[in-house]
Amino acid sequence: MTQEDTQAPVNFWGEHPATEAEYYAAHGAEGESSYFSTPDDAGARRLFTRSWRPAGGGAGARPRALVFMVHGYGNDISWTFQATAVFLARSGFACFAADLPGHGRSHGLQAFVPDLEVAVADLLAFFRISDRIRPRWPVPEILTLVSRFAPTLPIVPTADLIEKSVKVPAKRLIAARNPMRYNGRPRLGTVMELLRATDELGARLGEVTIPFLVVHGSADEGTDPAVSGALYEAAASEDKTIKMYDGMLHSMLFGEPEENIERVRGDILAWLSERCTPAATS
């Protein structure tokens, strides 16, 4: 991939429309962004946040439901992530998201997440005001030891996630041009925390009781489809659904051919629509 290929445009959709507001309007949505300071006695952190809502609803209009969205490791909420939020807003939902600490425009050392519980608490604090990755390579015990003394070192080897996550070649270029994407090696402290959280969550799948929909590509090399199957089988939820898409990669909502994206979007929208306020009719 050449330097010209990865040169970042202003927006993921290209030069036109020229502004986010125009892009939102062209897709039946409105949006805004701001910074949120977390309520923390040990020192507040500033998170970059976004919200999206149906266009023309007005301040007093009630959305069909609120959707709280969380991006993945090394990603952010301002690039292709927005496409799904805008789709849901166009369908009548109000969506909220924040860049995780150390990601995107949020404060903190880039891609360093030493404590996921703190990150989750930060997100919950933001969402409240709005009324899984285990590497396939073996982790030597020495990494655990080194991470205690140099947790911010970006030395853990990893494969090119874009090549393994995005199926359509042209879309790989778009993903690579994200100016906020972290493309360095994972930091030791972040890796060890992800491993810890993965182990804990894996041991507590049976405690899940809320309604949920899992969508996963069978060819996903970034996250293991078997883990989604384990969640579905172990969860105590009475209302649970799993959709496994044959041959799809990790980036199902952007990196696949358009017909695949529409299929996944349709399943998500159908699941939400069965469980919330009907769409407003004009």
Shape summary: globular
Placed side by side, the strands forming the largest sheet appear as 1-2-4-3
Please name the fourth-level CATH homologous superfamily of the domain at 1-131.
Alpha/Beta hydrolase fold, catalytic domain
Low-confidence runs: 1-6, 131-152
Q: What gyration radius follows from the Cα positions, in whole Å?
A: 19 Å
Largest sheet: 4 strands, mixed
Q: Which fold name fills CATH's third level, the topology of the domain at 1-131?
A: Rossmann fold
Report how far the terminal alpha carbons are from each other. Answer: 47 Å
Estimate what percentage of residues fall within beta strands.
5-15%
* CATH class wording of the domain at 1-131: Alpha Beta
The tally of helices reads: 10
Brief overview:
The chain has 282 residues and is of the alpha/beta class. 35% of the residues lie in helices and 14% in strands.
